[in-house]
Amino acid sequence: MSLAIADLAWGHPLPGGSWRQLFEGFNLHCPAGQFVVVIGSNGSGKSTLLNLIAGSLRAGGGSVQLQGRELIGWPDHRRARLIGRVMQNPLDGTAPALTIAENLRLAECRRSSPFGRRGLFGGLHPGRADRRRYAALLEELGLPLADRLNTPVGQLSGGQRQTVSLVMASLGEPSLLLLDEHTAALDPRAEATVMALTDRLVERLGTTALMVTHSLEQALRHGDRLVMLQEGRLIGDWTAAERQHFTPATLRALYGSATVPPEPVSTPSSLSIP
Questions:
Q1: 262 exposed, middle or buried (CB, 10 Å; 0-12, 13-18, 19+)?
Q2: Whether residue 58 sits in one domain with residue 43
Q3: Fewer CB atoms inside 10 A, N or C side of the chain?
Q4: Which pLDDT tens digit goes with each residue over 166-212?
Q5: What angle do CA 41, 181, 55 make, to 5 degrees?
Q6: Are 87 and 114 members of one domain?
Q7: Dist. CA 207–CA 105, nearest whole Å
Q8: Angle between helices 128-140 and 100-112 (to 10 degrees)
Q9: In Å, how far are 4, 70, 135 from 60, measured between CA atoms?
Q10: Number of folded domains in the chain?
């Protein structure tokens, strides 16, 4: 589904009684099925934007719509029926004492209704048919976890746990997928595994996706649109084709800028990087 953010406003108090207005009149439109990578310096509003979309933070004004459905005013648990999300910490988003199968079942219950079709506890324990579906899905996605459905998630490595979080977020075919630096806590090998799975899931679902990352290499390799935030403003917006003009060094040079070139640069040297 398409995501349309219009005139979004949000601020927060600062020590001493002053106020910081981070977002004011912020606009962003993502067509259905678009995979958008969001970058920017610390404090630019990347994770805050995802929190405002997910409902973890309450917007001070404006509109957030999924396929024309206004989400402002919805509690986060209601938005969770439409939105899948993966956080930075592999410990978030899963129940460590529950098995892989139970976590997947819990995710399905959360997506179908606030308490599942048969109630939260009645619907938590997966049946044989559920386990067959989960095993088939994990095999289809190339994850070596199909024979570990009875393993508590807390016994998995960080990378394995994050792959489970990704699969959980994708169950029920959410209208929007939010990825908040979901590889930042992983080693390079686990990061590569999780990003490969991310690409497969986004393509498989055909859903709209927003991925926040500090990795400029990821920003240049993944997604079909790249946007840059600075102090709650959208200062850069490039298609995948336009993004090919950049290198990690050229993107790094834009961090903290008030504005960026409106057109894609032809060569990295045109940004006058020393």
A1: exposed
A2: yes
A3: C
A4: 999 999 889 999 999 999 999 999 999 999 999 999 999 999 999 99
A5: 95
A6: no
A7: 21
A8: 100
A9: 16, 15, 44
A10: 2
Span 19-71, pLDDT tens digits: 999 999 999 999 999 999 999 999 999 999 999 999 999 999 999 999 899 99
Counted residue by residue, the chain has a size of 274
User: Is the same domain home to 121 and 211?
Assistant: no
Q: Which residues pair with 236 in a beta bridge?
A: 228
189 and 135 co-located in one domain: no
3-state secondary structure of 126: coil
Closest CA to 201 of 140, 112, 130: 140
Is this prediction's pTM over 0.85? yes
- 203: buried, middle or exposed (CB in 10 Å: 19+, 13-18, 0-12)? exposed
- Domain ranges, residue 110: 98-151
Residues 11, 122, single domain; the answer is no
29 and 113 fall within a common domain: no
Are 61 and 41 within 8 A, CB to CB? no
Q: For residue 8, what is the domain's CATH number?
A: 3.40.50.300
Q: What is the 3-state secondary structure (H, E, C) of 133-183?
A: HHHHHHHHCCCCCHHHCCCEHHHCCHHHHHHHHHHHHHCCCCCEEEEECCC
